[in-house]
Design goal:
The structure holds 3 protein chains of 3 kinds.
Chain A (H helix, E strand, L loop, with lengths): L2 H6 L12 H24 L3 H6 L11 H8 L1 H34 E2 L3 H13 L2 H14 L6 H25 L3 H9 L4 H12 L1 H17 L2 H5 L8 H11 L4 H21 L4 H5 L5
Chain B lengths: L3 E2 L3 H27 L1 E3 L5 E3 L3 H8 L1 H31 L5 H11 L6 H11 L6 H9 L9 H29 L3 H9 L4 H29 L3 H6 L11 H11 L3 H34 L1
Antiparallel strand pairs in B: 2-3
Helix pairs in contact in B: 1-12, 2-12, 3-7, 3-9, 7-9, 9-12, 11-12
Chain C lengths: L7 H23 L5 E2 L5 E2 L1 H22 L5 H17 L1
Antiparallel strand pairs in C: 1-2
Chain lengths: 283, 290, 90
């Protein structure tokens, strides 16, 4: 961006010449975002007696016991493992079926394409609450209740449409001449797709995978409804333990912090594409 | 991009079709089947006709949940959209600070929804939470489990915390796509800051803002986990939104018939709103393309 | 399939919808669709009009059920009128 542009995009009349208005706004907003997360972190590093007896802005008596509890107790850490398993299965399924479909939508007109696209959109918008009960009946009847694959398939309801949307947006940006040249050079569709096309939209695939991962990871209602013991997700573990153990705030906070970690790690890799991804590739 | 007509493209879409049909069409058909029958368990069903539908249409409970839902969605849209645009306008344009802002802003979006609830549940408590403790010390009575107003305020602030970044990120993406030449032309014309926003930035953000409003409206319309964890739908029924009510009915009381009738009406409303948004969006794209 | 709790009326209902979709697909193959601008100022094809008709009919039926005490058949007649209007002018 040139100098002229940056100058215009800032308000001209500043009350205090050395204070940058934008920086103040951003700082305030980021503090608003981070304060509750900091508070959770703060809680997770305190003992329960300290949480309930004294009020302090940082841990007076730093302890990692809460984390130790979670990482050594299978009923806790298996929640993370289960969640990760179904999230990964879901991401793989979603991306692999969405890739060819997104290619079709981005390159060709075919009968009913618009209606199909709209139908996919409605599935992204459909409330999980509507589907919770029939999913429960469906997966019970086919014997998949309380398995990872059940949750992974259920999450496909909103993740497949999302992946198709995002990938289609990214594929639009690849000129069609590339396809045509490859076909003239004698590439078959499959080989062209794997060798030439996929590397070109690698960032799009990364972003779509990230969003599938994220939306499957944050979902609670379906994962809680479709599992009971063997595939119980971390979200369900957290809500159930809350009522059972009489509010173990420290452990609850530590569990919460640990659920944020995977997201925070992967977000670093897609940081430049997050906005485009949320716009479903349409910027 | 000019698309070519090719009916064989259907084969590429087939896997998606099969998968989504399995996870969307079969459940929806089941819901329709349940909605016209009565059951006393053991998979024994009795024909009930349209009874459940008329019962739900007459029930105070559903209309109350619907109006609470609409009020909630309206409030959060009215806060999050302007705030999101405002934040996006103030974001650094490039470099290290821009990346840092992006990552930090995306953080709330990645927190599992029940943990969002937990965070605010703790944050708002008068005894151990920073927000509740501070308000209490200032002398503002604040108790989100007892007080109607406090419960609503907590749920709304929580949603603003959770999702404003989404609007901001989208608006930011729209702003990034504006060429510098536009700003330079505006500078030559000595356009005011407001005029730049009104005639350059806002039109360029139109498309992404539509997506932002669509996503925010839809997601707030089916909000379940966060308010459920914080308030459990209370005090009383004051924060019982549509999804919370539906889950209570379907999985809590296992009233299959009424819950199914409720689901169908809920879904029809979603379908209508999605269609309106989609139509407006595609028409916008077409006009931009023309 | 027992858990899906099928009934004859709902089966007929879904058959009718499936049949409508099939008919419109065949029609689209025989006589390709051309979009037109209707009273709503949006471009619609035949398929779009079918969707508007079905969705509208659902709401008409619900409104009838909620407000009128007359039998539901009247709502269906109203839907037919609505369908003709949609296909004629939208």
């Amino acid at each position: 961006m040139t100098l002229a542009a940056t100058e215009i995009s800032r308000p001209k009349s500043r009350v205090l010449p050395w204070v940058n208005g934008s920086a103040v706004v951003m700082t305030l907003y980021l503090v608003f975002l981070l304060l509750p997360i900091y508070w959770l972190l703060n809680m997770s590093l305190k003992t329960n007696t300290e949480i309930l007896s004294t009020f302090s802005l940082w841990p007076q008596d730093l302890t990692f016991d809460n984390y130790r509890t979670i990482l050594t107790d299978p009923s806790w850490y298996m929640g993370y493992v289960n969640s990760l398993i179904y999230v990964v299965i879901n991401t793989v399924i979603s991306i692999s079926v969405a890739l060819p479909a997104a290619y079709a939508f981005s390159r060709y007109h075919f009968m009913g394409d618009k209606h199909l696209f709209f139908w996919l959109l409605t599935n992204r918008m459909a409330p999980p609450a509507v589907f919770a009960l029939p999913f429960f009946q469906l997966y019970s009847s086919v014997g998949l209740f309380d398995t990872h694959i059940a949750v992974a398939l259920a999450h496909c309801l909103f993740n497949v449409p999302l992946a198709v949307w995002i990938l289609e947006g990214f594929m639009r940006g690849v000129p069609k001449e590339i396809d045509e040249t490859a076909y003239i050079d004698g590439y078959s569709f499959g080989r062209f797709f794997m060798k030439i096309f996929m590397p070109l939209i690698a960032s799009g695939i990364g972003v779509a995978a990230f969003f599938c991962f994220m939306f499957s990871w944050v979902e609670l209602l379906l994962s809680r409804t479709l599992t009971s013991v063997d595939a119980k997700s971390i979200a369900a573990t957290m809500t159930r333990t809350v009522s059972a153990s009489g509010m173990d705030w420290g452990v609850l906070a530590a569990a919460g912090v640990l659920t944020i970690v995977p997201g925070a790690l992967v977000i670093y890799f897609v940081r430049n594409y997050i906005a485009k991804g949320f716009a479903l590739g349409r910027v | 991009m000019e698309k070519t007509v090719n009916q064989k493209a259907w084969f590429l879409v087939l896997p998606v079709l099969v998968l989504v049909a399995f996870s969307a069409v079969i459940p929806l058909m089941t819901v329709v089947n349940y909605s016209v029958q009565d059951t006393f368990g053991n998979n024994e069903f009795y024909w009930a006709g349209l009874e459940w539908f008329s019962e739900m249409l007459d029930s105070e409970r559903m209309w109350n949940a619907l109006s609470r839902q609409l009020v909630f969605s309206a409030i959060i849209l009215a806060i999050e959209v302007p705030l999101g645009i405002f934040v996006a306008l103030n974001m650094p344009k490039k470099g290290f600070w821009a990346s840092l802002c992006l990552v930090l802003m995306a953080l709330p979006l990645l927190v599992p929804w029940n943990v969002v609830g937990t965070i605010w549940q703790i944050f708002g408590r008068v005894d151990i939470g920073l927000l509740g403790y501070t308000l209490d010390k200032i002398g503002i009575p604040y108790n989100y489990t007892q007080d109607f107003f406090a419960a609503w305020a907590t749920v709304i602030i929580m949603d603003v915390w959770h999702w404003t970044s989404l609007v901001a990120l989208l608006a930011y993406a729209g702003l990034q796509s504006i060429p510098d030449a536009y700003y330079q032309a505006a500078k030559i014309d000595q356009a005011s800051r407001l005029a730049v926003f009104r005639f350059i930035e806002l039109p360029k953000m139109q498309g992404v803002l539509m997506i932002a409003i669509l996503l925010r409206f839809m997601d707030s319309f089916m909000i379940y986990t966060e308010p459920f964890v914080v308030t459990g739908g209370g005090p009383g029924n004051s924060t019982t939104f549509l999804s919370i009510d539906l889950v209570k009915m379907a999985l809590g009381q296992f009233d299959l018939g009424p819950a199914a009738a409720f689901s169908i009406m809920y879904f029809l409303v979603i379908l209508l709103i999605s269609w309106v948004f989609y139509t407006v969006m595609t028409n916008l794209e077409k006009r931009e393309g023309a | 399939m027992a858990w899906m709790a099928w009934t004859v009326p709902t089966a007929i209902f879904f058959c009718v919808i499936a049949l409508a979709l099939l008919t419109f697909t065949v029609l689209a193959i025989r006589y390709p669709e051309t979009p037109r601008l209707g009273v709503l100022r949006i471009e619609t094809t035949r398929g779009d009009r079918l969707f508007i008709t079905l969705l509208g009919s659902a709401f008409i039926n619900l409104a009838w059920l909620g407000t009128m005490s007359d039998p539901q058949w009247w709502a269906l007649i109203l839907c037919l009128v609505y369908a003709t209007a949609v296909f004629r002018w939208v």
